[in-house]
Structure formats: structure tokens, C-alpha cells
Amino acid sequence: MNLKNFLFTCILFFNVSIQSQSVQKIDSAYNNYFKKVREIPHLHLNKTSFLQGENIWFQAYVFEQNSQKLHNPTSNLYVSLFDESGKLKKQKLIHIQNGIGKGNFKIDSSFTNASYFIKASTNWMRNFNEDVSFSQKIIVVKNRETSAQKIKKDSFFDFQLFPEGGHIVANTFNRIGILLKDANNKGIEISKGTIKDETGKEIDVFKTNSFGLGEAFLPFKENQKYIFEAILPSGERIEVITPVVKKLGITLNLINDEKNQNVIVNILTNSKTLQNIHGKNYKIWLHNTRKYIHYDLKFDESKKVYAIILEKSNILKGINIITVFNEENKPILERVFYNETNNLLTNSIKASITSKINDSLKVTLTNNHSEKLFISGSFLPPLTKAYRPDKNIASSILLNPYIKGNIENAAYYFNEQQKNRLVDLDLLLLTQGWSKFDWNQIFTNPPSENFKFENGIDITFAFNRKILPSQQVQMQYVDDENNENYALTIPLNKNNHFTLENSFITENTMLHFGIKSGENLYKISPSISYTNTFIYDNINKNQIKELVNTPNELSNFSYLFDDYIMLDDVIIKSKLQDQKKQENSALQMKVISKYYNYIESFYFGTDKYGFLNNRSGNAWNVNFGINNEFQSIVSTSNMVKFRDYGSLSEPIFTDKKLYDPSTIVVPFGFSKTKEYYAPKYPSFSEKAYLDYGAIFWKAGIEIEANSTFEITIPDNNIDSILLNLEGTDELGKLLVKQIQIKK
């Protein structure tokens, strides 16, 4: 029977009372539970399938749940890789600035499994009962096939029924959500299933969509069981029996009426139940962690159906939760639904190729939006198989924080090109049951601050030797991220300790320490302790559970090395010894230049020491291990001294041992960011590249309102380019856009 027709024929309205003393307990518990800031991370990956030798490139976004805007205070984000058994493989600490960060993982030869999982979370998020971390399965494409796992026939299917609101009540109409999945948690679509009573009589039919989701609406009788039978595409028949039918109780039906822009909430019960509850006050809460509205419902002894019609324009946008409480303030029914939001940016950005220069293309992005955009973009071959994310930035922010189950292809529900997405989303929410938020936790276990909100890294230096009043301890290091040099005189406390708070030092940074006595600087080495730069994380086992192995994705490319060059689709490997010698030399000069270009302090008397491109410089330790050849030059005179001559400096060598600091390479810190680079693909025309290769990746794109942004990408002789964009604006509106760019 049609749910909407039935309810409109017997609908009875109840009065709404916004003011009620009985809601105070729920009100205070709810406010207390959700008062703390909650972070929501999302990673936009350049791909989800990778060839060995490639990198996983990503841009990280961190939002605040209540405002649904970028969370500027967040600075420390942990991004982890897990293998298919759930074992942690790698973890990086990503520096988040104004809600955005970026990073990468190299898919090296140690990635021997076919699949891995990437996860993003913060230390602060561990304070909350609900897991809203980001996770995504990634595939490592092999050039050889591994053996498939043998499985039992009876492990293939997951066939479940979900009564709307939570349970089935006898002698009234009940809506039943249907879920049909295979062993890999992928939906099974069927065009017809049957519903039979205990005698075998067919009383109704159902179907499921491509995600294995369906529904039925039935009048359940007392002591009656119903059998749902599905005929699979293989011809096999499987069945499931309805859950226990309650003789007493109430049930909930919700109609998300897109045509009339209403949400109809119906409360239904039977005659036996009315004898026990008439005259009692129940409460209906409409909430979404940010706001709530509550209504009172008083049962009449003769009314079995009660309803409220909510205009969508007057209720909360995005995910909403309907919870029904009995007279004892106990939650007895719950339903999650979605009210379409205007937070999605659809036609705000365009992309086109504006010029071609040699072997490069200039792509222009045009922001037609009235706000500044913060986005990232993945440029791929047009028919790629490598970009299949389960979620996008919209589903991560608008859906994942409220749903406790795993969602197949959550990105689909926020793709406005999919005409059935809202109907399918309602089926998803029907089969999800209650929301992620447990009312027992809300009433009894509000979040505690057991894990600190991190802001950088606090580093404590402890010096064990006596420091005289006339002496100073100095420290210097280079920030590779910003190309800035830091030098300071350390203000020690009475215990000869000093804490550098909220630093954003990167991993493997060299710290130089010296104790200054008069004109001289001598070695001094501290012991170092620091705050958290690693979290003991894990992946949800339900996310990695696969009862069978899906077919491995294969390519004819071997491991992609960076020391290959392309010449007419022929691989030519350079002479390694000569090449490595040249590369080492170039690297050494690059490192030397980098360090000497950004030195700005360490004064010693009237002379300054260091290298600064023919400008007067400041003291710096030149003997920090660039290579043996360079060290040997330095060691002949122990240091190079620059005497100031206006705009030029004259280097002179001195035998004076004035500068002899100690150097410590710290094994901790934020991950160093890198600009995108691609491996040397053997061919741009082979199927392996067209299926799984990449053209370009660009993170950190910022486009002012109503302006353009230009990106230069390689021309890999492909007729068109698939550009996948994700991002946000300063107001929290979300961008998910896929553009086919024709040459």
C-alpha cells in the first residue's frame, strides 16, 4: 500500500507546545553534550588507485561541526596509512593553517598488499564518543595477479530488514527498510522481490536500487511473521523473516515530500497501546547537534495516528534527527532525514585550456562565485579508473558526522547530476536506523578533555652543565617550510630548562646549539623532550572487513622509478654512477644555497659570519654535513669569516676557533610539504597509463571572488582531461566539481 495515500486519509494533527517544563532535562543534557568544539577532517586525494612508484597526494580540510566552516585554530592533523589487516604502516603529522594543509605518501616497494586505508584525525577528536575521522580505501595496482581467497557459499549475502523508528508494532502500518549486500559490502540491485505471509501467500513486492536499498509498507498483524524473498541476478533465492512484532508500542513514519517541500512526521499506535498511554505526554525532538526544536504530544484515547507537517524552509538544513521520548524522557523512536541545503556550490567554477607552450598547457580556472575559494584539483586521463572515492567533501561534512554505519559511495548523494539521489539518500537513512549519537551517552557521559587540543609542538631543552651569568646559550635552525632562519638566545629557568612552545618544526630539522662566552661559541648539547607528534590510531574493522577478495587491478607497468626518462615511448635508463654523482653535486649545491640564503642572526662582535650571496651575513655553522668534500674545505680553517664592505662581503679564512656549536637532528616534527612531481611513465598511450596514471595535481589553490587562477600542466598528448575539484569558501559552502576539459 502507498504510504503517502494511507497517511493523508487518516491524518490527525496535534497541537505544538514549544514551552514545556518536561524538556528541561533533555535540554540541559543536550546542550552540555554538544557544547565543545568538534572537528571534522576531510582529505581530497589525487586518486584512489595507484601504481607502485607514484605518490598519494592530498589536500586536508578541517571543519568545525557546528558552524560547518573551516576551523582556523586546528594546527595538528594526523594522517595514517593502514594495511588491509588494519595494521598501521605509516603516519604523518600535517600542519594545518587556516583549516587547510597538504601532504603526500610515496607508494614504494614496501606496499606489497593490494589495498590500504588512509585515515585523518586529530588528537582532540579522541575526546568524543563518535568517530568522525576521515577514511578511504586505496588500491595499489599490481603488474601481476595474486591468488584469490576461497570463500564459503553461505557467506556471500547480507539481507537485513530495518523497521522505521526501530521496531514493528502490531495492528498498524509499518515501514520497513531493506538492505541487500554482497560479501564485499556492495549493494545488490534486484527488480523484484516478494513478501509472503506464514501461509506462503504473496502480499506485496519490493525492489532494491544499485546500493541494495529498498522499502516496504505493510499492515502487520499480531503474532504474524512475514517472509521477504529476493531473487538474485544469479537466479539464487534468499530470504529473511521480519523481526519480532510488538503487541504494544508506537511507531514512526516519515515522508520527505520534495514536491511540496514538506516533511511529514507521523506517530502511529494501536488500540491496546492507547489504553496504557492516553493522557500521557510524549515529546518529539527535531535536532542536528547545532540546534533543536521540541514539540509536546498528548495521546487521546481514540486517536491512533498523529502527524505534524514541517515546512522545509522553516527547519534545519542538512541532516536532521527526529527523536520521540516517552513520559519518562526515555528515547523510544528515532529517524534521520535530510533537508536539502544550499551549501553546495554547483556552477561557481569553470575550467578551460587557454594556451599551449611547448610541452605544457595553461589551464585557467574561473571563479564565478562572490566569495574566495580554497580548492584542490586532480588532473587525470578522461577515462580513468583511478579516481573512485567513496566520499567527497560534501558527504564528509554533511553526512558522515551523523551516521554510524558505513556508506557505499557516499559521494553519490551530493552529486546534483544524479536525479534520484535524494530518494536514494532517504532509503539510506531509513536503513541506517538511529543516528550516531547515543542518548545514553548524551544523558550520562558528556565529553571530557582527556586529550588536549594541540597547537604545534612544545619542545623542552634541558642543559646539564652549569651556565655562568656571563654566558648565553644560543640556538639556531632553518624552517624549510617557510625558508626562514630562526636564531635566539635561550632564556633558561633556574633548572637550566627552556621550552619552545607551539613550534612548527619539521621532521629531521637540524638544531645548532652553542654556549657563548665572550667572543667564542662552544659546544653544548641538551637533552630534548617534546609533546605528542604521534597518536596510537586504528582503523574501524567494519571498514576493512571483506569476506572475499575482489579481482586485483592489474597493469603492465612495473615499479615507476624517478631515474627513467622518456624518448619516443622507449625507456632509457641513465648510467647510474654518473647520474648519481651529478645529482649529488646538484643536491649539495642546492642545499648549501638554501641554507646560506636565509641566515639572519648570530652576532659575534663587530664581524659577521656566514654565506649570504655577496651580502653581509650572520654567523652560522657551515660544518653540518653537506658532504665530505665540502667539509674538508671548511675544516682547513674551521670557519669562513665574512668581513662587511657595504654591499659586498670579502670571505677570509681564519684559524681562530670562535664557532664550534653542536648539531642535533630531531627525529620528530611536522611532515615537510612537497610540490607535486610525477614519476616517469613508460608511455602515455598505453592502457595502464590511461586507466591508472596521472597528469597533474595542484593543492593550495586560492581564487579570489570573480577572478581567475592559472595552472601550468604537462601536455601528455591526450585529447581531453578530467579535472576533479573539491574545496570550500570562507562561509562554509562546499565545492565538488568534475569537469571534462577539451583541448
Describe this structure as you would to a colleague:
The chain has 743 residues and is mainly beta. The protein is built from 10 helices and 46 strands. It has a 5-stranded mixed sheet, with no helix packed on it. A 5-stranded mixed sheet has the order 26-46-45-29-43, with no helix packed on it. Strands 31, 32, 34, 35 and 42 form a 5-stranded antiparallel sheet that branches. It is globular. Residues 1-21, 146-154 and 563-655 have low confidence and may be disordered. This is Macroglobulin domain-containing protein. It comes from Polaribacter gangjinensis.
Keywords:
743 residues, mainly beta, Immunoglobulin-like, five-stranded mixed β-sheet, 46 strands, 12% helix, globular, Macroglobulin domain-containing protein
Number of helices: 10
Largest sheet: 5 strands, mixed
Radius of gyration: 32 Å
Low confidence ranges:
1-21, 146-154, 563-655
The helix fraction, in percent, is 10-25%
Strand order of the largest sheet: 2-9-8-5-6
Which structural class should the secondary elements be placed in? mainly beta
Shape: globular
Task: Give the overall pLDDT as a whole number.
Answer: 83
DSSP strand tally: 46
Span of the ends, CA to CA: 53 Å
Strand content: 35-45%
